[in-house]
Amino acid sequence: MSHVADEVPLTLDGQPPKTLGVLDQGALWANLGVSLLGFSGALLLLDPTGDAPLSLAAALVATVVGSLVGTAMVGLSAIPGTRTGQPAMVLLRGLFGARISYAPTVLNIVQMLGWGAFELWVIAKAASAIFDGVAYPVWVVVAGVLTTALTIWPLGAIRLLRRYVTVGVIVSMIWFTWHFLSETPAPAGGSWTGFAPAVDYVIALSVSWVPLAADFARHSRSARAAFTGIVGGYTIAQVACLGLGVYAVAIAGAAAVNADNTAVFDPFVAAPLGALFFGILVLRETDQSFANVYSTTMSLQNLMPRVDRRIISTAIGVFTVVIALVVDVTSYGAFLGVIGAVFVPMFAVLAVDYFAFGGGGRWNTGENAPSRWSMLVPWALGFAAYWLTTSTPTIAAWDGVWASARDAIGFTRQPWMNGALGAAVVAALVTAVIGVSRRRAARR
């Protein structure tokens, strides 16, 4: 088979090659689980509410629990893509109908552009920590060009990750772990009070990948390989990344990292051989921006199915570079909260309808797929449930709206409540009720 035949088709009319095994996907998702943003994000993990710092044990347990829950959602969302060969947003034609699918598609485009800009920003800032004589815009442009090139040959990029990059990342992570553990005492103090919002935060980190999992899993040799690669690779890597970030924040100082996210990079660069191993992690970060730009491309192809993906990827790559030059990274935590509120309940609706009510056999993913307005009800109720139960602060005015809503309905949020799980449970239950009602109506 030629190299061209082994690559992603240029339009949605082409047949996706099934070339990715469990090692390919494990390497891809392990690399996605190690994020430079995750190192600074450890600050949000340690104190998600801003007034109840976690103990080290609580933070690590929250990381494991949140990662397992979140990656299970991502893994399950990948299975329909493997079975149908369709990208994530095209699958939503089966769930919502073709025209309604355009709404979550646009939301995904917006969040992927945001993530892509974040990644170019963090790559440029991290590179500047190593080579401080090079201007920030130069690194943004370099990272943007490399990102765009990877999206032109996406399956080749995944094979490159498996064969070469993953080994360097593993060695780098082991090196920094050994150095931090041997040089720095474990963070002391804290409690379990903020455990639930910390789990929310970690789930949001993981579940942000739900809307693009099928974009890669459609090329998997089997559903089992896709699920195993995602859950195994991403969970292990994210736990290691956030755990390492906890120590990096302790070394750099929480106050310094809170004032400047990039301060968390200093302990890495200052370590013996730090510039070398941190440079590997910086180079690897382009797989994050690659995944975001590529998913944006796949989402746009749901709207423009016969436009060459290379043209779309190039345009998105340029646009993401422009955004990265002016992006405001102080909204990172709020951004994750919004992602979780939107896509966690959407995943729950998709999973219940597909796996419990035969979506695999009856979904129409064509451009003429009829609208299924009833599926918007559980999604909307799950969205509301997220904000009613979460204790993770985002934007003051928005949080105030939901505080008023709780008062209006006489609902008291309990400390043990978790927004992501609350949203998933409500959306899943309402979807199940709709599915059962539909079956009964069909029998009559």
UniProtKB/TrEMBL annotation:
Membrane topology term: Multi-pass membrane protein
Annotated transmembrane regions: 28-46, 52-79, 100-124, 136-157, 164-181, 193-214, 226-257, 263-283, 311-327, 333-356, 376-396, 416-436
Cross-referenced InterPro entries: CodB, Pur-cyt_permease
UniProt-recorded Gene Ontology molecular function terms: cytosine transmembrane transporter activity
One Pfam family cited in the UniProt record for this chain: Transp_cyt_pur
Domain of life: Bacteria
Cellular compartment(s): Membrane
Principal subcellular localisation of the protein: membrane
Keyword presence, Cell inner membrane: no
Gene3D superfamilies attached to this UniProt entry: Hydantoin permease (1.10.4160.10)
KW Transferase (keyword) present: no
Record keywords, A-Z: Membrane, Transmembrane, Transmembrane helix
GO cellular component: plasma membrane
Homology family: Belongs to the purine-cytosine permease (2.A.39) family.
Matches recorded under PANTHER family: CYTOSINE PERMEASE, CYTOSINE TRANSPORTER CODB
Full protein name: Allantoin permease
